[in-house]
Amino acid sequence: SEVLICEGLEKSYNKGRPNEIKVLRGLDLTIPKGQVTALVAPSGAGKSTLLHIAGLLDTPDAGRVVIDGEDLTGARDGRRTAARREKLGFIYQFHHLLPEFSAAENIILPQLANGQSRAAAEARAADLLDRVGLTERIDHRPSALSGGEQQRVAFCRALANAPSLLLADEPTGNLDPATSDRVFDVLMALVRDTGLAALIATHNLELAAKMDRVVRLENGMLSEG
Ligand code: ADP
Ligand code: ADP
């Protein structure tokens, strides 16, 4: 079954003005359950635009976004926000963890916001941190963690509410190459374990090659490979 369907996406900035820029030109993308897709794009090609539209943070000028069978393109803001919380996990280049909270609390809080009980949220946080090898760091604040450890906590937070789809923008982009490789392998294991569908933007072609499929964004369209 398809977790994400993007169909005929079009997006321009400065529409109707001389400096109009057509970023997406009828883009199609389908991601089935369990498939991890690498998104490769030259800088400025529209990678962030696509991730924002797929992540329900922005709307296309034309086309539709269907997640878990629900067309959310024209849905009300409240429904889109709820769908984002229930169905999507986000990972960015920089972790954006809450500095005042421990590793565990950073994973617990989004679950409480989603209506989970504290006991269940704590158990899930402990399990996720264990999967990424951070059981010893559960009570540490982000500032007491290395860059790679911070990013591993961010992975757990993205998965806190058991999303259907993970969207990641250069998830290991701010780490040195050796750390990036190790942390990326942790992310892949976590994604595989949970059977998530994922769209992971990266400039790193070696990392892209570890995914199930590579799509390239160029001239507003996607091509395979
Ligand atoms: P990428 O993430 O691949 O670098 P973006 O999706 O951020 O690309 O941007 C694609 C193109 O659209 C770029 O040329 C960028 O300058 C332009 N762009 C992005 N956002 C805006 C905006 N809000 N207004 C005008 N132009 C924009
Ligand atoms: P509650 O679930 O009791 O409503 P809050 O949303 O205020 O709690 O905070 C969630 C958790 O974060 C609580 O367990 C609390 O102990 C912890 N917490 C709150 N503020 C801080 C802080 N400044 N630093 C570390 N932990 C905090």
UniProtKB/TrEMBL annotation:
Any Gene Ontology CC annotation: membrane protein complex
GO biological process: lipoprotein localization to outer membrane; protein localization to outer membrane
Gene3D superfamilies to which the protein is assigned, alphabetical: P-loop containing nucleotide triphosphate hydrolases
Domain of life according to the entry: Bacteria
A GO molecular-function descriptor: transmembrane transporter activity
Domain ABC transporter residue range list: 4-225
Keyword annotations of the record: ATP-binding, Cell inner membrane, Cell membrane, Membrane, Nucleotide-binding, Transport
Coiled-coil regions listed in the entry: none
UniProt-listed InterPro entries: AAA+_ATPase (IPR003593), ABC_transporter-like_ATP-bd (IPR003439), ABC_transporter-like_CS (IPR017871), ABC_transpr_LolD-like (IPR015854), MacB-like_ATP-bd (IPR017911), P-loop_NTPase (IPR027417)
Family: Belongs to the ABC transporter superfamily. Macrolide exporter (TC 3.A.1.122) family.
Annotated PANTHER family: IMPORT ATP-BINDING PROTEIN, LIPOPROTEIN-RELEASING SYSTEM ATP-BINDING PROTEIN LOLD
Protein name listed in UniProt: ABC transporter ATP-binding protein
Naturally occurring in which organism (per UniProt): Thioclava atlantica
